Input
Amino acid sequence: MAKAELRARPVRVKNKKKTPAPIQITAEQILREGLQEQAAADSRVRPPACPITDAIELYQYLDNKRKSFETLIRRAGPTNPAAWTSYARWEESRCDFARARSVFERALSVFERALSAHRSDHTLFLSYARNVWDRAVSVFPRVYQLWYKYAHMEEMIGNFPGARRVFDRWMRWEPDQEAWLSYVRFELRYKEIERARSIFEGLVRCRNRACAWIAYAKFEMRNGEILKARECYERAVEKLVGQEEEAVELLVAFAGFEEICKETERAREDVIMAKRKFEYEDEVRKNPFKYDVWFDYVRLEESLGRQEKVREVYERAIANVPPAAEKRFWERYIYLWIWYALYEEVEVNDVDRARAVYKECLALIPHDKFSFSKIWLMAVDFEIRRLNLKGARVILGNAIGRAPKGTIFEKYIELEWQLGNIDRVRRIYQKYLEWSPENAFAWMKYAGMEIDLEEIDRARAIFEVALSQPALDKPEDLWKAYIDFESVTDRERARELFERLLELTKNVKVWISYGEFEACADEGDNVHERIDRARKVYRRGIDYFKIHAPELKEERVMLLDHWLTTEASFGELGDTDSVHAMKPKKIKRRRHVETENGVAVYEEYKDYLFPE
Output
């Protein structure tokens, strides 16, 4: 009887359908919280610190650590991914990426053999790939293709939370609209409508542009949310107040939306567009050289999306060549060509036509009278984007031959430097300096390149040739760069440079820099000798202003102030009292001056009374 009663008692579920829990927990959230707790526990448990006092102990420590990892791999078996991964992660934590890569490659070779024998899995391959992608997007966060590939990999292996985390990291860099839309498409593939909507909200916050709002509204329309789509357009109108260029595109799309929704009154916006087009036609007929009107007209047609009409307006606009061959008349006109080329490349994706636009524009400009480095550089960048390095070099060579400018040379140098063509870079620098030998900045950049290549003798020779030029636009910058270079490589040479510079000029800044140089601690220097050398420099400077330039009182005071600061930096070895004794008294004097009207007046001025 008791057993029958026990079997008859049902298990009660308390109101399962009527009152669900206010917060629903997903499987993804449970996994994320578990990983976070595990990471927090790992961070709390730290191994004891191992004190290392010199390089030998460091090498022994590293050697022992690597041996322990190798032993762990042998004990756990060569196909154990955890052991290999731990080893590689440790090398990576020390920023020794070459060793970390070597460990991964060794592991992959072992796993390839094991995989062929059906004795392994692909976990380590994924770990290595994820590690590479993660480092790639960390180093190059603006290279969008890396983010695309990373997210695609996570999606293909079914790691949807991981792909979502990659997209979230990417969106924090505020990329262009296409990146946001790729995130939206990812969520839509898995029917995550609300997530896609929140991504669109992030897009319009980041990119308050008409195209972003229009994409958001079209998304709502595709999901049958007509009211939400209209709300998007209305919000966009409020957000884009004052942005006329954006408003045109938005209002056209808004009118098309209302026509689809059978809202005829709302669709009358098209009449406004037609009226604006009529106004533009009237203005360009009266004055075809009013280029700002052509810009507005082109923007209107581009917003309507009629490709052939846009090209027609561009061709009509660029046909109005300025009547005078003066640069000031061409400055606005040249931007019509730039807009035209960018439209063909970016909007239409017609590479051949864009190349033809650049070519025709460069042929039209009278380079013997003036030129525009901007159009040369944009043509070069276009060819680089098309991976046409030969074409880019041809354009740069023509630019240097027909209209040389510093920016052209610098672009050519940058291109060849990135390609690793050092000999080409040197030849371009030589042509650059033959064309502009007075350009101190170019000499410094040339020497700086050789310094980066650790070509010390070449760099020193370049500095010497630069200083031998009869005229330089900024010789003080060149001297400073040369002295800074020698201060690191050979301090005795730096002293000789200071002495050579003092033969040319006794400017107070040179004395101050020389004194600070001698006061600066150097490895292996005797402290007392260093202090004596600095004091000798300051005394020489003070003696010069005292004997040979007594009228330069302000400079003498400035040098004394720096000397006093330097003595204070020596601590107990400093002698601030003797420097204080040299400082002057500040007094006020009056002198007789005449105004512009010829009236004699007295004015007060500050003067210095030195102890002597």
